[in-house]
Amino acid sequence: AASPAVVAVQVPGRTGSGFLIDDRGHVVTNAHVVGDATTATVTIGGRDIGARVRGVEGSVDLAVLQLTAPAGDVAPLRFDDAATLRVGDPVVAIGNPFGLQGSLSSGIVSGLRRQIDSPNGFAITGVIQTDAALNPGNSGGPLLDMEGRVVGMATQIATESGRNEGIGFAIPAAVVERTADALIATGHASLAYLGVAGADT
User: Fold this and answer.
1) Out of 61, 80, 131, 145, which one is annotated catalytic?
2) Is 139 annotated in the active site?
3) Average pLDDT of 14-34?
4) Largest CB tally within 10 Å, which of 26, 90, 178, 196?
């Protein structure tokens, strides 16, 4: 039921995944998938549709695209509160690894409240760790619970080989939803941060 809302995102020089979040044609993906592009091609429902970049927030690695044509009868995905997750809960990831659209992998929540670095160097906190296989092209796709609700967005892997080694990371659904709402409303997320760093002395 969730798979039709998961899309392939293509911009010059890179590909990734994304998913439809409302009936107004808004798609979310990772900021590092979009890069500096202002337009993209989204494959949804077997069709290639143009999209423009509505907004990007690099500090949480999130971008919102606006489809330039209706998505048809594709139902958007629903968000769930990732705060209800527990280690060991089953999850699935759907995405576009190596261009194989609609690929599904399954696993569990391996850890919670992890921290990873965003593309612009800010720390993303509260991140979900999973052993569901994530590979190049999965970035921006949803991490789903067993009811097909979005609990996170696949964004990074920890690897020494460049391929999946069983440690993937997903931005929590609450962060994705909150940031996407701001980008849709204003084109900017205006996230607050504290400019303090610690060091051993």
Assistant:
1) 61
2) yes
3) 95
4) 26
